[in-house]
Amino acid sequence: MDESIFTQYIQKRKQIIKNRNILQTTYIPEQLPHRNTQIDRIASIIAMALNGDRPSNIMVYGMTGTGKTAVLNYIGKELKKIDPEEQKCSYVYVNCEVVDTAYGILYNIVSQIMIDSQIPFTGWSFEKLYSELIIQLDKLDKVFIVVLDEIDHMVSKKGDMIFYYLVKINENLQNSKVSLVGISNNMKFGELLEPKAKSRLGEENLIFPPYTKEELEDILTERAKEALFDDVLDSSVIPYCAILAAKVNGDARVALNLLKTAADIAERNGESIVTDAEVKSAKNSIEFNVVSEGLKTLSQQSKIILMSIIKNVERGNAVMTTGEVYIMYKSISELLGTSALTQRRVTDLISELDMMGFINASIKSLGRAGRTKEIELSIAKDIVAVFKNDPIFKPLESNKVPTQTKLI
DNA sequence: TGTCCACTGGAAGGGAGGGCTT
DNA sequence: AAGCCCTCCCTTCCAGTGGACA
Q1: pLDDT tens-digit profile of A374-392?
Q2: Which nucleotides of C are covered by protein (CB under 7 A)?
Q3: What pTM did the predictor assign?
Q4: pLDDT in tens, A331-377
Q5: What whole-number distance in Å separates Cα of residue A176 and Cα of residue A334?
Q6: Of A55, A130, A172, A237, which sits with the fewest C-beta atoms within 10 Å of its C-beta?
Q7: Please, where are the H alpha helices in A148-299?
């Protein structure tokens, strides 16, 4: 083989990671360590679908990275093993964070069960789509296990009437049956529902506890065995990843991501083994990427609001009120030539930035000086620097942001 | 004890942009 | 072409609020 600029990288790679796919959080392994209790429980409920009966609806609770989605997808895979032609039972998975409207959820279910669905992704009335769903479900004459992941995303948006419709769908079906599995990160999800929908959706309830440090170690060890070459991990790497992830609510995704990124870094640097140093770098690099990627996806208006907060901080105003942010926001909007939103809308966007973790905002009463939000920036300096390079802020470089502090 | 500030956050509704139906 | 529906983003309106101050 001739020498090429790529030769060195090809030779350096191949040394640590055997199969990168196995370290992905979406990968479903043959065994899910420490989730047998949950798997058995769900399987015992769902099993009756294979006899043509309707299993109880199930609500699954647990924090992120506790294996809820993995367990349900594992069960879907196992169902397919025993009923490959899906003659008795079909598994339908919908992520409510991705598909976050009532119409969208129905549309998603219909398009999974129909081979060539002609239904438009918008345009029909909800009722019409619901009737069509019933017709299509009934035609197939079997039991459908419909998994609604991240179901808590639907409650706050006025879309929770979807649950009312889905929960009573069996009343409209002659041949088929539908069993629902809701997955929620939020333990209080049930309380937010109407009592009627709550009791019918949670005929069975299941809680996934966070993984302990030891359990995370087992999970990582299992995956590493398959995904990595032998003897490429320093003995402290897996415990270290496990400890870091255990601090984040025992999140297995965090643990896997750390291991994968650390292995990547070691490979890139041409190391023959992964050590704690790579895990440390992995931790920093993940944090940096998550935040800066998140910032990129903000709408233009949210970016301007965040910029207003940054400008306030740069002026030495580390803790500011909504009013102060709004004044700055108006000046920046003017300089950028974009039309400014109302303060009402801006308060909503500030709350969103807070929820996404880019800022910290808490309501504070200043007595006679009124009641407002106290806002602080909570992203690291190096990320702020990257954010400020966004092309939409180009005009700010040549213009000075005014120092006006009162609304006129 | 009542007042009053600077908002907060709910409700209702407008309108643009996606689409279907007749 | 006209009449609908759905979602998203936004505005307008307004009642509600915690606590310093008179």
Answers
A1: 999 999 999 999 999 998 9
A2: 4-14, 16-21
A3: 0.77
A4: 999 999 999 999 999 999 999 999 888 999 999 998 888 999 999 99
A5: 59
A6: A172
A7: 153-156, 161-167, 189-192, 195-201, 213-227, 237-247, 252-268, 276-296
